[in-house]
Amino acid sequence: MFDLPAGAQLLARSERTEVQAFRHGSAYGLLFHPEADPAFVDLWLAEPIMAGEARAAIGSDYKQRLRADAAAHEDELLPRSAATLDALVAERLRR
Predict the structure, then answer these.
(1) pLDDT, tens digit, for every residue of 58-71?
(2) Domain segments of the chain: what residues?
(3) CA 38 distance to own-chain centroid
(4) Please, are residues 5 and 24 in contact by the beta-carbon 8 Å criterion?
């Protein structure tokens, strides 16, 4: 997690994380992965550093939890990801 950079515009937050997305000039920052479908989660888990970070953040059942969460949200992932990215592009074009 991080603080909103000085001069940045907050675009998204959650109950657990105050800064989920922001814009600063022409740059965007996202603290989530709209592309994280089950196949992508498996690629992350195959990377020792990423797997270690996930274990430290989530606990010993990190693989099961991440895979279950990805599977539970897979049907809504593409429409939500597309809507998020479309909104970012539209916001950028308005500027």
Answers:
(1) 999 999 999 998 88
(2) 9-94
(3) 14
(4) yes
